[in-house]
UniProtKB/TrEMBL annotation:
Keyword NAD assigned: yes
Gene3D superfamilies: Dihydrodipicolinate Reductase, domain 2, NAD(P)-binding Rossmann-like Domain
Species, as recorded: Microbacterium aoyamense
Protein name, per record: Gfo/Idh/MocA family oxidoreductase
Segments forming domain Gfo/Idh/MocA-like oxidoreductase N-terminal: 4-117
Keywords, in A-Z order: NAD
Amino acid sequence: MTLRAGLLGVGMMGRHHARVLRELDGVELVAIADPGGDPHGVAGDLPILPDIDALIAAGIDTAVVAVPTRFHEEAALALAAAGVHTLVEKPIAHTVEAGERMVSAFADAGLVGAVGHIERFNPALQELRRRIAAGDLGGVYQIATRRQGPFPSRIADVGVAKDLASHDVDLTAWVAQSDYATISAQTAFQSGRDHEDMIAMTGRLANGVIVNHLVNWLSPMKERVTIVTGEKGAFVADTSTGDLTFYANGTVAVEWESMSVFRGVSEGDVTRYAFAKREPLRVEHEAFRDAVLGEQSDVVTMQQGLRTLTVVEAALASAGSGTALAP
């Protein structure tokens, strides 16, 4: 069976969805809609349809929604009503209430509703999660992430928390296989916009792991790093390159007297792993396709995407109130 796919939005992210959909086995991209036209010239032989209704009228089985966050709910509800399995770019919606309506609509219709939390499909994080599950780190103590870089002019309807920190919240809960128990945050507004452009989050997962996320749009250098510290050492995953490095706790006695006063962990061997590195967006689309076909899949469900948004909203509320919250 070949799934007929439609794509809503061919902007900076949508153009990549178009490329991958055209290359995906078992899927045929048959329709593209974007009220803003085709700025990157990805439509090829397909006409650019004006709206979601025209996309649905093309007779599609699945859809990818890659429009600004504030339009996610309207598009998703229309697709659910039309019986179309849908992958919505992250975050799931602009508010928790909108996300809840989306989750309910797809559940009631018996459709696959998914959210594009692409970091779960990054090869470095997949290898990291596999090695943690295999016990390579022993007990996990802390997960810290840094995600920073220049301001993207294409983002106008949400702040850095929903646009970027949602990645870190989702991947942290997924890597640790535990939900957030508490979260607190501080935000900054430095670029003259209504939305925050910097957030520092800290919290604890239900399994006791301490978490920290530093996220901003104010740095001239781009960084995408996840550090997991545990009983046997620390993993460092660079999701911009797909690299995973392990820093083992030392087993060699320290002979430098001033250093030997410190009775904690010492430096051991450093290992950078070699493993297959497939494009995360392609792996994400394969997971969505398999879920639609009823096969085993690691697709990020709308329910999971809603939980991530709930944690991010709690972090923003914490920044306003100055207190830690239970999301």
